[in-house]
Design brief:
Length: 240
């Protein structure tokens, strides 16, 4: 009996080690998130392995891109406090996709409209209520701030990218390597890498066709690129 328990324990330990190696491999070589980075008035808040973007909308009012991994929202609340604001000042949360590390603190902000692509609503609503489903290509007005919505399926079926104040938020649809090269979403967490790559190629084409003003590209699990649309275009050219 003791021998059996030891064997089972060893197998469980090996599985944890193997899982840790897989996860570690997926995240190795990424450019680190810079906590407190300001880009075009938008603040990047680091929450462990993921980032949240805080967008000022006007006096006493802000929006978030995603809601982080910490259920208490500690890092977000600290940034709000730094601005002499409280959780009630968050009036909108734009979800890139419904994985738990992007939606954990939604309940901390009860006055926020929670927005996600309509196709992603079922995944998000396993843990939080979506109050405003979005459509690919629509523009959301948050006060005087305009947010352009793009579908980028692949990481999840309803993954979204958002363009706001010249910053393109890609969520987990892509990462940036230490050398500044954009990489597609890691296979271990994604529904379809091939669809993800195709979505990024299509997004680049749409942004070029629209002559969109992209000054920077932000990623949920890695740093920010400030070379405009060029890095995404380079990725698209390699993956067409």
């Amino acid at each position: 009996m003791k021998r059996t328990l030891k064997v089972v324990g060893l197998m469980v330990l090996l599985l944890f080690i193997f899982a840790g190696i897989l996860i570690g491999t997926a995240f190795l070589g990424r450019r680190s998130i810079t906590d407190g980075l300001d880009i075009n008035g938008i603040r990047i808040v680091k929450d462990g392995l993921v980032s949240v973007a805080l967008i000022p909308l006007g006096p006493g009012e802000v929006a978030l891109i995603d809601a982080g991994n910490d259920k208490s929202g500690k890092a977000i609340v600290a940034e709000l406090s730094r601005r002499q604001l409280g959780p009630e000042s968050v009036t909108a949360i734009l979800i890139t996709h419904g994985h738990p590390d992007h939606i954990a603190s939604i309940p901390v902000f009860p006055k926020a409209q929670v927005m996600a692509l309509e196709t992603e609503v079922p995944l998000v609503e396993r843990r939080a209520k979506v109050t405003r489903p979005l459509q690919d290509g629509e523009t959301v007005a948050l006060g005087q701030t305009q947010v352009r919505v793009f579908a980028v399926p692949g990481h999840t079926a309803g993954s979204a990218a958002y363009l706001v104040n010249g910053v393109l938020f890609l969520g987990d649809a892509a990462d940036v390597a230490n050398d500044g090269e954009i990489k597609g979403s890691p296979w271990i967490f994604s529904s379809s890498q091939s669809q993800d790559r195709a979505s990024l190629v299509k997004l680049d084409h749409r942004l070029i066709q629209e002559n969109a003003d992209v000054k920077a590209i932000a990623f949920a699990h890695s740093g920010v690129l400030s070379e405009g649309l060029t890095p995404l275009t380079a990725f698209a050219q390699e993956n067409r």
